[in-house]
Amino acid sequence: MQKLYNWLDGGIKYLLAAVMLAVPLYPKFPFIKIPGTYVSVRLEDFLVVALGLTLVIQIFPRLKEFLTDRVNREISGLPLVGLVSFAFGHTYYQNCHSKYRTVALG
C-alpha cells in the first residue's frame, strides 16, 4: 500500500498536467451518448475522475491534518454543498407531479 502512495505522490503532477492539456486541447467529441438527453460523456471526463480519485486517496489518510487549514475546509465544503443540492433536486424531482416534470425538462 505504501508503494501505491509513493507512486501517487509522484504521479499526481502528471495527472494534473494531463488534465490541463486535455481539457482545452482535446476535441469535444462525445465518447458515450446518454439516450434520451443531450448529454454525453467525453474521454476527458474519465481523466478528471481519475485525478479526483487520486486526490481523495492522497487526502483521506491525512484528513484530520488536511482539515485543520481554514481554506481547505472551505474548499472541501463546496462539493458537499453540491452533493446536498443534487440530493435535494433528485428527491424533489422524484416526488413532484408529472405535469411539473415536463415543464422542468423543457
Question: Can you tell me about this structure?
Answer:
There is one protein chain. It is built from five helices and two strands; from the N terminus they run αββαααα. Helix 1 runs antiparallel to helix 2. The chain has a two-stranded antiparallel sheet with strand order 1-2. The protein has two domains: 66 residues; 37 residues. It is mostly helical and 106 residues long. A hairpin with a 6-residue loop joins strand 1 and strand 2.
Topology at a glance:
Elements: H1 2-25, E1 32-33, E2 40-41, H2 43-59, H3 63-66, H4 70-95, H5 98-105
Antiparallel strand pairs: 1-2
Could you provide a short overview of the structure?
This protein is mainly α. It has helices at 2-25, 43-59, 63-66, 70-95, 98-105, and strands at 32-33, 40-41.
Task: Count up the helices.
Answer: 5
The span between the termini is 49 Å
Low-confidence segments: none
Query: From the alpha-carbon coordinates, what is the Rg to the nearest angstrom?
Result: 19 Å
Assembly type: single chain
Mean pLDDT, rounded to whole units? 78
As laid out across the biggest beta sheet, the strand order is 1-2
**What is the number of E strands?**
2
